[in-house]
Amino acid sequence: MDYDTVLQGKYPAKQHARRVVDYIRSKVPGATGILYLQSRSTKKHEDCDQEEPFRQRRFFYYLTGCPLADSYLVHDIDADKSTLYIPPINPEEVIWSGLPMSVEQAKAKYDVDEVEYKPVDINARLAHIASLKTNPTVFAVHAIPDEITFLGFDEKDFKVLREAIETCRSVKDDYEIAMIGKANNISSAAHRAVLEKVKYAKNERELEAVFLGQCIGRGARNQAYDSIVASGTSAATLHYVKNNEPLDGKLNLLLDAGCEWDCYASDITRTFPISGKFSKESREIYDIVLKMQNECIAVLKEGVLWEDVHLLAHKILIDGLLALGILRGDKDEILQSRTSVAFMPHGLGHYLGMDTHDTGGNPNYADPDPMLRYLRVRGRLPENSVITVEPGIYFCRFIIEPVLKDQERAKYIDSAVLERYWDVGGVRIEDNLVIKKDGSVNLTTAVKDPAELERVISES
């Protein structure tokens, strides 16, 4: 897909609105009235006259494609008409912040039917809309301020619209896939820039700065999440946050980082040797994780049961650690005992979209099975969903050492062999995949071949 060509069009907000209305009517037959959504408001930091960083509400963006603050949307269900209300021009603010977007500019940019400046009394406007309908319902989501009364509407539903949007968001159209693909291209280039600098860096924070600079320089100012730049044994911490430790004496660096493009996320992880050459133990673990990822990607297609893909990853992990001697015994017994969860305690991946951990996954964090408890996605994958595939193997003492004290599971781990692998820390490899009818499309182009990783680092 030529992402830039696709992105020359408009974000398909009306298509999303129709999809959402269809879902609502499947739950509320004959639903009539309006959908009402508000954007986030601007907000200042406490004890300061500067504004907090702004991130648009996902529900509002999904039905507008509009990143503007202090705005709202009314979608007339019966007329299939979307009206976007944006802040009026305040002459006193122009000198500080410049001209805001005009009604004419917004109408040209966003996929809505009408654009108007916000009226002084929004309640009067909503009441007038309600007066034109018979038995109207207003469908809205959370964060409606107290001053919004919805007078004139016979019913107020604050549940089904949220459910509808969260469900619809799990299937992406071409425009959304193009935005995720664009973010992936920028992030992949930034990952390569880190490879080219890692041999000369002294501290994790230098590499975080390289990644951020590359993204901003390519037009992606916002990150989809806070970067994880974990060196040495810190790579065994799944959501490591310090990013300020020295690199000297460490074997590997795990970089989990991705920018966003117009509110749509990328999420990429690479693990590589700081020196430019994997240690024997690091390469052995890396090869197992790469095999886990490649074989899991190979089985992806519409309708595949995600739990089965996750289980496949654990089976490959067990085979690999048995071959190294870290695990011992019968592989089926090891799987049944859930001993492998000590080496990969997280789920294989998650949906990706406006959120890094996107909606629609239906997780069950109360599942008594520790192998399935932290899966962010359950069930069968629909066509045109976007999902991450991110297997890993981690040597975290806080997780593995309790298992070594558990008689039932300790017998499956050779602690003498394990001792040689603690310094590997953790290895994770993560790509972003679009699910298709008969396979998948990988949006991530960051280097992951181990020989190529070594070459790029060594020749930089």
TrEMBL record:
Residues 11-149 form the Aminopeptidase P N-terminal domain. InterPro entries: Aminopep_P_N, Creatin/AminoP/Spt16_N, Creatinase/aminopeptidase-like, Pept_M24, X-Pro_dipept-like. One of its GO terms (biological process) is proteolysis. Gene3D superfamilies: Creatinase/methionine aminopeptidase superfamily, Creatinase/prolidase N-terminal domain. Pfam families: AMP_N (PF05195), Peptidase_M24 (PF00557). Signal peptide: none annotated. Its EC number is 3.4.11.9. One of its GO terms (molecular function) is manganese ion binding. Keywords: Aminopeptidase, Hydrolase, Manganese, Metal-binding, Metalloprotease, Protease. SMART domains: AMP_N. It catalyses: Release of any N-terminal amino acid, including proline, that is linked to proline, even from a dipeptide or tripeptide. It is an enzyme of class 3 (hydrolase). Its cofactor is Mn(2+). PANTHER family: XAA-PRO AMINOPEPTIDASE 3, XAA-PRO DIPEPTIDASE. Belongs to the peptidase M24B family. Catalyzes the removal of a penultimate prolyl residue from the N-termini of peptides. This is Xaa-Pro aminopeptidase. It comes from Rhypophila decipiens. The lineage of its organism: Eukaryota, Fungi, Dikarya, Ascomycota, Pezizomycotina.
